[in-house]
Amino acid sequence: MQIIIGSGIIGLFIGYKLLKEGQKVTILDINNSNNSSTDAAVGMLAPLIEAKPGESELFNLMIKSKKIWNELRKDKVFSNEVDLKKNSSILIAENYDDLERLKFKKKFFSQLGFNTLLLNDHDTQKLEPNLNSNLIGSLFCDDQNSVDPLKLKIFLKKKIKMLGGKIQYFECLEKICFSNNKLIIQNKKLSAENVVIACGAWTNKLIKNSFNFDLPMIPLKGVSFLLDGGKKLFNHNIWFKNIYVSQRTNHIISVGATEEDKGFEDAITLDEMYYLTKNIWESFLDVENLKLVDIRSGIRPGTFDGYPIIGRVGQISRNILCAFGHYRHGILLAPVTAEIIYNQIVNYKKFPEEKFFSPERF
Ligand SMILES: Cc1cc2nc3c(=O)[nH]c(=O)nc-3n(C[C@H](O)[C@H](O)[C@H](O)COP(=O)(O)OP(=O)(O)OC[C@H]3O[C@@H](n4cnc5c(N)ncnc54)[C@H](O)[C@@H]3O)c2cc1C
Asked: What is the pLDDT of residues 62-101, one digit of tens each?
C-alpha cells in the first residue's frame, strides 16, 4: 500500500499515476480544509510565460510536464471533462513601458528556443475584440494553454475511486509516526510501503511536528475570482502586467491573481478585490455585464529557493517521500511530479536533473 497525505492536485495526480501502474493507494486529507491552493488556481499551463532568467532547470521541468499535458490532451474524454484546451496566450501591452517589457521577453523567449510574435494594437484587437482599445500591442505565444483545476480535481477523485483507491478524511492530522511499514495516526495503524507527503503549504508543519525536521518554505497567499461572461468573449488566455485571465468553455472567466506573504491568513480583503477588479475594469469592454460567481483565496506552497521539493527524504526515512513547494506552478508541474514519485517508488529510478528539486539539497 502506498499512502499519500494531501489531496490537492499534487497528491491526486500521484495517486492516479500509482493506481494506473497497478499500485494500491490510500489518500488521507483533513475535513474542512480551507485555502487549498488548487481550489484558487486559474490553471494556466504556460511554461514559457512562467520562465525566468537563471531558472533553466525549473523551466526544463515545466517543459517536461507540459509535454505530458500535451499527451493527456489526446484523450478527448479527459480533455473535455477537465476543459484542457489547445489554445495560446497573449501578453498585453497597455503602455510603452509594457511594450519594452514585451520586447525584452520576446528576446528572452527566443534564447530559450521559442518564437513569439509581436503584434500591434490593430492586430491584437482583431484577435480579441472584447479588449479595451487602450492597449498598444501584444506578444502572441503559441500553445500556452490552460485547464480547469476544479474539474481536474473532480475527475481525478472519480478515477481514483474507480481504480480501487481510497480517500479518507480525518478531523485533524497534525502528527504522524512511521516505522516498520506502519503509519500511525491518532492510535490508528495503517500498513504502508511508502508515505508521500503532499500537503502543499502545510507540509512543513506536518513534517516538523512529526519528525522534528525542517524543510524551509513560505506560504504565499493568492486571491482569484470567477466571472460569468455569459458568452464567449475571449479566444486566448490573456496576460496583463498584473493579472491574467482564462475563459472556460462554459464561459466562466477565471481571473488571477494577487500574491502576498501573509502567513496562513484566509480572509479576502478589500484591497485584494480592488487590485483584481481595477485591472479588469481598465482592460475589458462591457464590464457591467460580467457577473461575479466566486472569489477564492489559496495558499501557494513557496520555498526559499523557489524550487519544488520532490523525492525521498533520506534525512527522515527511505520510505518517506515529499511532493510539495510547487509555488505558482503546481497545476503545470503535477504530471511530471507524479512521474518522478512513481519512478522513485516503483522503479527506484532517478531523474538525472533530480538534484535541484531533491529534499536532500537542504
Ligand atoms: C490564486 C492562485 C492562482 C494560481 N494559478 C496557477 C496557474 O494558473 N497554474 C499553475 O500551474 N499553478 C497555479 N497556482 C499554483 C497552484 O495552485 C499550486 O502550486 C498547487 O495547487 C499546489 O498543489 P498542492 O496539491 O501541493 O497543494 P494544495 O492544493 O494546497 O493541497 C494541499 C492539500 O493538503 C491537505 N492538507 C493540509 N494539511 C494537511 C494535513 N495535516 N493532513 C492531511 N492533509 C492536509 C489540504 O487539505 C489540501 O487538500 C495558483 C495558485 C493560486 C493561489
From this structure: 999 999 999 999 999 999 999 998 889 999 999 999 999 9
- Among 302, 303, 301, 299, which Cα is nearest to 361's? 303
CATH 3.30.9.10 fits 86-145+218-303, yes or no: yes
Q: Report the distance separating Cα 197 and Cα 203, nearest Å.
A: 7
Of 33, 17, 38, 23, nearest in space to 159 by CA = 17
Q: Cell for 313?
A: 527524504
- CATH topology assigned to domain 2-42+149-214+305-361: FAD/NAD(P)-binding domain (3.50.50)
Alpha carbons 171 and 192: distance in angstroms, whole number: 21
CA of 214 to the centre of ligand 1 (A): 20
* Residue 83 Cβ contacting ligand 1 at under 6 Å: no
Task: Report CA(148)–ligand 1 centroid distance (Å).
Answer: 14
Specify the ligand 1 atom closest to the Cα of 246.
8
pLDDT, tens only, 13-31: 999 999 999 999 999 999 8
Whether the CB of 62 sits within 6 Å of ligand 1 = no
Domain chopping of the chain, boundaries: 2-42+149-214+305-361, 86-145+218-303
Kindly report the pTM of this predicted structure.
Answer: 0.97
With a 6 A CB cut-off, is 12 part of the ligand 1 pocket? no
Ligand 1 atom closest to the Cα of residue 300 is 53
State the Cα–Cα distance between residues 103 and 156, nearest whole angstrom.
40
Rounded (10°) CA dihedral 146, 150, 154, 159: 30
The shares of helix, strand and coil residues in the chain, as percent rounded to the nearest 5, are 40, 25, 35
CB-CB neighbours of 132 under 10 Å: 15
